[in-house]
Write a structure and sequence with these properties.
single chain, mainly alpha, two-stranded antiparallel sheet, about 5% strand, elongated, Crinkler_N, Crinkler effector protein N-terminal domain-containing protein, secreted
Length: about 130
């Protein structure tokens, strides 16, 4: 993406790159600078993979209405380097889906435990 474009355009392009993964509107994506010291040290691929949803509080959220060249983000003289990750993308709709899947798994476990418990109770009453 060209440095003169907006962060909103970056969101649109990220969504376009992953149409089978990102099912929400581009505006719903949350972008963070992939540096905890405002661009001093960028994450590499392994560092980015290690970031969890709880870890993003340590990163600076990118304002979606400004230009990529904005001083608060990358600045006018930004030169990307090979191997550096510059933006972390959080897909809120995926976060909700993960919660739903986890909830379904938990409910399934509870139902299974209840059935086992009822079966154990039936075994206890029939052996008496």
């Amino acid at each position: 993406i060209d440095a003169s474009e907006s962060i909103s355009m970056l969101k649109t392009k990220v969504k376009a790159e992953k149409p089978h993964t990102i099912h929400c509107d581009a505006d719903d994506l949350q972008l963070y600078l992939a540096s905890k010291d405002n661009g001093g040290t960028w994450l590499n691929s392994d560092g980015a993979k290690a970031v969890t949803l709880d870890d993003v509080q340590g990163f600076h959220m990118i304002d979606p209405v400004v230009w990529i060249q904005n001083r608060a983000h990358f600045g006018p003289n930004f030169e990307p380097s090979d191997g550096d990750i510059h933006v972390l993308v959080i897909v809120p709709c995926l976060r909700r889906e993960v919660r739903r899947v986890a909830l379904r798994a938990t409910l399934a476990d509870l139902v299974k435990k209840k059935k086992l418990h009822e079966r154990d109770d039936d075994d206890d009453t029939s052996s008496s």
